[in-house]
Amino acid sequence: MKNIQLEVSDNIYQKVIDFLSLLPKQCHLITEEELSNAEISHISELIGKIKEGDDSEFDNWDEIKSSL
Predict the structure, then answer these.
(1) Angle at the Cα of 20 from the Cα atoms of 57 and 13, rounded to 5 degrees
(2) Of 16, 25, 27, 38, which is least packed with CB atoms within 10 Å of its CB?
(3) Tally of structural domains, the chain
């Protein structure tokens, strides 16, 4: 399974959630309110790494695009 995190402005948050809820049932939508403190902390650490240019925790997007 792969994960996607989106940061959206407050004024469109509910519209994005509504749209994502239309995805097939195999896709699991978890809102921030459902995450534990440990999960939120882990996400924050990953965001920090990304901001520092360290994306080693993630797949190489160029390789993924070429396989599509």
Answers:
(1) 90
(2) 25
(3) 1
